[in-house]
Amino acid sequence: MKKVVVTGATGLLGTNVILKLLQNGYSVIALVRQKSSWLGEESENLKLVEADLSSDLSLLFKELDCIIHIAAETRQNLISYDEYRKVNYETTINLFTQAELMGIKKFLFVSTANTLGYGNTAFSGNEKSPQLYPFIHSLYAQSKLEAEDYLLKYRKNTEVVIFNPTFMIGAYDSKPSSGKIIFWAWKKRIIFYPKGGKNFVHVEDVATGVLGGVEKGRNGEKYLLANENISYKEFFKKINRITHQNPIMIAIPNGLLNFLGLIGEGLRKLKIKTNLSASNMKALQICNYYSNQKSVNELGLHYQPVDKAIEDAIQYFDKNNTQ
């Protein structure tokens, strides 16, 4: 039985990855802040360990086949790059260094699609596309890219596989995290939507991709885990169809988003935390589109419709009275 360690175990992707690993006969050590935060199924092959990822974890890495590093600082309201770098870069390097020392075969790093260049309605970004504005100004995306570059440059005895998922939707989004976008439209009489678009993917498919990476991922390669390229307007229309609602839909002018970005930059200079920033507001105006061809060809992925991802997320939120 293959033995793996998973960080970020209680998040949306971490929970789905662990469930997928258990279903496929893996023994999993899940690193968590608190054991009580685990909301998935219990299993004799799952061991929850409360751990500080910046500490020495080498004792946990004995006779280990693989580390799947998902834990990250994803909040968009942090002000300084160091706040992102400490978690997304320094913790990653600490874990990877220990993996090398302990002779672990594979280190799988979950990054973000925004370290790669996006496309538009005419063509989609891929794993070879260089990062583009506005994400070159995203502190989160920059910290992830710095970690990617280090792992690819300094890998020696441990294989490195990098995953670049797009916007994930699905069950076990307990905070919620990316699922907040559903509440933007669900049970609303009026929906204000930005004019851009992005790539949406079922979190179960991302988890399947990570499992495929354990078994088939090639050393030194990046894999976009992506599915449907659609506008925000069309995404919200999907929510409307699934939930049988018929709200008024109003486009947000790009000029208003730019103005909000300027306000955000001013607040940030005053050291006030806010989700508003010039780069975040610009990201809502572009078609942030990607291709999944490499993951289909090399990892054998078959992606589910985004409608199914929305349905699963809403059912989970309903069942758990998530607001």
From TrEMBL:
InterPro entries in the cross-refs: Epimerase_deHydtase (IPR001509), NAD(P)-bd_dom_sf (IPR036291), NAD(P)-dependent_oxidoreduct (IPR051783)
Domain NAD-dependent epimerase/dehydratase per the UniProt entry, residue ranges: 4-224
Domain of life of the native organism: Bacteria
Pfam families linked: Epimerase
SUPFAM superfamilies named among the record's database cross-references: NAD(P)-binding Rossmann-fold domains
UniProt name for this protein: Nucleoside-diphosphate-sugar epimerase
